[in-house]
Design goal:
elongated; mainly alpha; single chain; 7 helices
């Protein structure tokens, strides 16, 4: 698993959510809300769990990743419901989405350092 690509993909979701909010576009909120449908999620729930499941950093990454997808899915559902004010509030700084976004980035970086050290 290329964890740098995973970081970039999750950072891209912030841009996609903001773009959908600005353009009043719809998103696949249910897929976005799932932590096991993106490349990182598939790895975390499959090969990654087999190889690193006992690691505290791995467990932290799984939890942060799930939180990120829950918060992103909630923002996407608000956008899809045309509740743009709520979506804006959900995507702002200081929100659960912002915290989850930061937390998943930190967790993936820690996991990357750990997996590189083990290799």
């Amino acid at each position: 698993m290329n964890l740098d690509h995973a970081l970039a993909a999750h950072a891209d979701w912030k841009v996609k959510l903001r773009g959908a909010l600005a353009d009043h576009a719809t998103l696949d909120a249910e897929t976005l809300a799932s932590d096991c449908k993106c490349q990182l999620g598939l790895w975390l729930h499959g090969e990654g769990r087999v190889a690193h499941g006992a690691s505290a950093n791995f467990k932290s990454c799984v939890a942060a990743h799930a939180d990120f997808h829950r918060a992103a899915g909630a923002g996407a559902r608000a956008i899809n419901a045309k509740d743009y004010a709520s979506a804006e509030q959900q995507l702002d700084l200081g929100t659960p989405f912002a915290a989850a976004s930061s937390a998943v980035a930190v967790a993936v970086r820690r996991l990357k350092v750990e997996t590189q050290a083990a290799a």
